[in-house]
Amino acid sequence: MQSNLLKTFTANFDPEEDRIRLDCDLHIEEQAQIFFTQRLGRLFVIELVKKVEEMSVDSFSDDLKTDEKLSSNEIQEPVSISSKRIKTWLIKSIDFENIEDGLRIIFKDNKLHAVHIEGDKLLLSSILDVFFKMFYIAEWNTDCFPNWIIEKTNTKSQSATIH
């Protein structure tokens, strides 16, 4: 199964499906909509928190730099799904692979579809922020998130975009 690189995504909570939906722009100039169930979303968050915390922690000043970079990089233009032939699927498994500059996360449906994202500690922390917002909006239990995410995340927005 070939995985396509995810360029950017916008996360939303879909109340009809009771799932987190990622509207994705891929590097191959295609789009996809992928869905997380609450159960898989929780497992994803727990594993991603472990991976982020394992990455080098170089003191308090790095955390300040991260916060500055994140706050200056607020929500930009959300992904707008424009194709009627978009691939839509439910994520059934997630693989984590260590790479030279961080981590590759591969979202799969176990049959035909896969997309992946590659990122460093800063990007992965941003993804955790996004998922915290979606859990909060969905009124799902947020006990799988560490305090450092809960304390710094503003949950006012109904969607979030990662570039």
Description:
The chain has 163 residues and is of the alpha+beta class. The protein has one domain: Secreted effector protein pipB2 fold. The protein is 33% helix and 32% strand. The protein is built from four helices and eight strands. Strands 1, 2, 3, 4, 5, 6, 7 and 8 form an eight-stranded mixed beta sheet that branches. Helix 1 (38-54) runs antiparallel to helix 3 (121-138). The radius of gyration is 15 Å and the shape is globular. It starts with a strand and ends with a strand.
Give a topology summary:
Elements: E1 4-14, E2 19-26, E3 31-36, H1 38-54, H2 60-72, E4 87-90, E5 93-99, E6 102-108, E7 114-119, H3 121-138, H4 147-152, E8 160-162
Parallel strand pairs: 1-7, 3-4
Antiparallel strand pairs: 1-2, 1-8, 2-3, 5-6, 6-7
Helix pairs in contact: 1-3
Summarize this, please?
This protein has helices at about 40-55, 60-70, 120-140, 145-150; strands at about 5-15, 20-25, 30-35, 85-90, 95-100, 100-110, 115-120, 160. It has about 160 residues and is α+β, with helices and mostly antiparallel strands.
Mean pLDDT: 83
Counting structural domains, the number is 1
Structural class: alpha+beta
CATH second-level architecture: 2-Layer Sandwich
The termini sit apart by 25 Å
- Tell me, what is the CATH class? Alpha Beta
Percent strand? 25-35%
> What would you report as the Rg, rounded to the nearest angstrom?
15 Å
Query: What is the helix fraction of residues, given as a range?
Result: 25-40%
